[in-house]
Amino acid sequence: MATLDSDTLRLQSLGYKQELKRRFTCLTNYGMSLSVISISSGLSSLFSYGMITGGPVVMIWGWVVVWFFTLFVVFGMAELCSAYPTSGGLYYWAGILVPQRHKAFASWFTGWFNLVGQFCVLAAVDFGLAILIASVISFSLNSQWSPQPYHIILIHLVIVISHGICNSLGTRFLYCLTYLSICWQLLTPIIISLALLIGAKPGHQSIKYVFTEFKNETGWKNQIYVILIGLLPAQYIFNRYDASAHMTEETKHADTTSSWAMISAVVVSAMIGWLFLIALFFGIHDYEATIRTSAGFPITQILLDNFSKELTLVFMCLLLVACWFCGFASVTANSRMIYAFSRDHAMPGSYWWFKIHSRTTCPLNAVWLSCLIAFILALPYLANTTTYMAIISLSTVCLYISYGLPILCKILYPHTFLRGPFHLGRFSRFINVISLIWISFIVVLFALPTIYPVSGVTMNYTPIGVLSVLICSGFAYFCSAKYWFEGPVTNLTFNYNKDKLDFVVKNF
Fold first, then answer.
1. H-type helices in 344-382, by residue range?
2. pTM of the full structure
3. Whole-angstrom Cα distance, residue 47 to residue 63?
4. What one-character DSSP code corresponds to residue 24?
5. CA–CA–CA angle 152, 153, 156 (5° rounding)
6. CB atoms within 10 A of CB 311
7. What's the sign of the alpha-carbon dihedral 247, 253, 254, 260?
8. Are residues 104 and 444 in contact, defined by beta-carbon separation less than 8 angstroms?
9. Structural domains in the chain?
10. pLDDT tens digit string along 76-87?
11. Which residues 6+ apart lie within 8 Å of 84 measured at CB?
12. What CA–CA distance (Å, rounded) separates 77 from 90?
């Protein structure tokens, strides 16, 4: 019998057999979270929103505030990830931390909020990329072509298919592409930032303007309210870092590397993103004209004000590729969550979604399911162009609810937690409480209307979306799943060395 390594034994101690190939290291696991956070993707999509909800002072200093409190959430999740390194991540943690009678309930709701959030994130990222591609095409053609909603949907479809194909080529290809994504996500904002800070044309903003100017074009008169809703772009970007947790069954020494990868991705993204924000606001020539630009996106206008059209297109193409890598990594993380959730029989058609393809050693069906749903979620755009912002808000709220539930379970039942190699020691409870307070705060924040007067077009539909997820998952649980869903279940065949497993369990 082949000797089992420590990672395999550790996974078996949690109830699962090793089915995925462990090719990922700390660096590539970090690359997955770095890619899905994607400073380039988030700021390209939401910079215009930030320009009207407080402007430079709120985006610059709000970025620091959001990053500071997000770190509490990240540390709390990293501690749980180290203790329970499985692809299921949050729903597994919630189920294992509560008494047996609550196991299925906690796992079910955590899993569905996390899954819906991931579906919405993928749809938002790829759809935002589709809009950005259309605007770049229009810009390159001197606005001779104006994209219609069906053009955006078709571009979105092509992007989704490309992500599905690349995620279907096997873990070796995935591993190599993740290395490339790391370089692209790091270098793109740095190159553009340095170009703006060093080579900006005369007429750009002053340092005082960048760090102190307040802009409000929301229609709301209360400045405190505007400052609060101005935190939303930063919080949307500091999201999805649970990708590191979903890749643990493919990561070597996952109980330590995945936790540090998650934390490192947030810290590095915060530093690079802050530099990028400063450079973008510094490069603005005419603030009002930038908001109402005919170039499609404010970032495009900022680059055009400082560089030639040809160089602007080069920079925009760098951003497009970075956004593509973000969607690519989102499909990867989403498919691993689908795989794990189906392995525990929580999804309709579970038998199909946790199958591992023999040649590519990846959950192929899960990959294409995530792509299909990402495409379907974009279709309402044909009837209502406010769909995009609704999906962004819903994705953030659903994911942060799923982040908060296992942390809440740990606080309520501290005696059930068996800490892993990475732990917070005596500060654990304090950090967990602060993270829950912050999550509660941003869930309320994302439910607030952002534009006044509130109408059918400017209304924030996030509460309706969250309530729909809660009602649908609750109805499914109490009417059906309550009688058959058990939460995380074992899929082991006990043919390994029991003494070795007992040793692993005792030492973790």
1. 350-353, 364-378
2. 0.92
3. 12
4. B
5. 85
6. 14
7. negative
8. no
9. 22-486 (1.20.1740.10)
10. 999 999 999 999
11. 14, 92, 93, 96, 420
12. 8
